[in-house]
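Our preliminary data section would be incomplete without showing what the modeling component actually yields. Below, a chain of 142 amino acids is followed by its predicted structure, encoded as tokens that our downstream tools consume directly.
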Amino acid sequence: PRRAVRPVYAATASATTAQGAVLDECLAQVLHNAAALCADAPEDPVTLVHQLRVGMRRLRAALRLFDGWVPPAPPELLEAWRDLFAELGATRDRDVFDSGVARALAAAGAPPLNPRTNAPATQDPRMLMRGAGAQSLLLQWS
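Predicted structure:
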């Protein structure tokens, strides 16, 4: 898994240059984790999905940070990014639940929960990221 790295740019950089450095770093995190997730046998798919979503969230935050300073990203690209983020979020929620949250809730006296029946079905994150829609979106952002 690749974690976030602080982007580097000169203190005198233009807003466009600074945003470019920030977005490049966010995309590097996203693309690295997406590629590793798409491998035939990823070593740690739970952490890869988490770090992939961290990079996606950082990219969205960077776009908001530079709002008004640089031209906005195309709305359809942002919408597709949000949709992919949400789909991966359902997987992440299930991973967290399965990591021990369910046991902790049961130990605290909570009623039994089963996110597999209470939440909409989600696609395997490897297949999702291998799909034409996700691959096209990553290429468009790149």
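The CA atoms of residues 33 and 46 lie 11 Å apart. The chain has six helices and no strands. Preliminary results of this kind motivate Aim 1 of the renewal.
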